[in-house]
Amino acid sequence: MQAAADGEIVYAGDDLPGYGFLVLVSHADNYVTAYGYNRRALVREGQRVRAGETISELGQRPGQPARLLFQVRQGGAVVDPAPLLGPR
Predict the structure, then answer these.
(1) Residue 34 and residue 63: Cα distance in Å, rounded?
(2) Is 8 exposed, middle or buried (CB count within 10 Å of its CB: 0-12, 13-18, 19+)?
(3) Cβ distance 8 to 30 under 8 Å?
(4) What three-state secondary structure class fits 43?
(5) What is this structure's pTM?
(6) Do the Cβ atoms of 9 and 25 come closer than 8 Å?
(7) Which of 70, 71, 82, 36 shows the shortest CA–CA distance to 56?
């Protein structure tokens, strides 16, 4: 997985059951992006990352196909990422 925007890794671990390796990236304007169901994190807490930088390897949940959990939060509330990511 690649970071959606420049930021700082605020969590990279597997302490939360059901998420695999979870990576949380803090961004400007109180945004946080969450990347879950990873096989492993390729970053460490406190590390600065740039948009597009690889931060983790996608994993597979037991008995299910590989998929990514991706969330954008602002101030703790989940927000629609489409307007923030721009055209693709």
Answers:
(1) 23
(2) middle
(3) no
(4) coil
(5) 0.89
(6) yes
(7) 36
CA distance 10 to 24: 6
Distance between CA atoms of 41 and 58, rounded to whole angstroms?
9
pLDDT by residue for the chain (88 residues), tens digit each? 899 999 999 999 999 888 889 999 999 999 999 999 998 999 999 999 999 999 999 886 667 777 889 999 998 899 998 888 766 6
One-letter amino acid for residue 80 of the chain: D
DSSP, res 65: -
Residue 9 token pair: 């890794």
Residue 18 amino acid letter: G
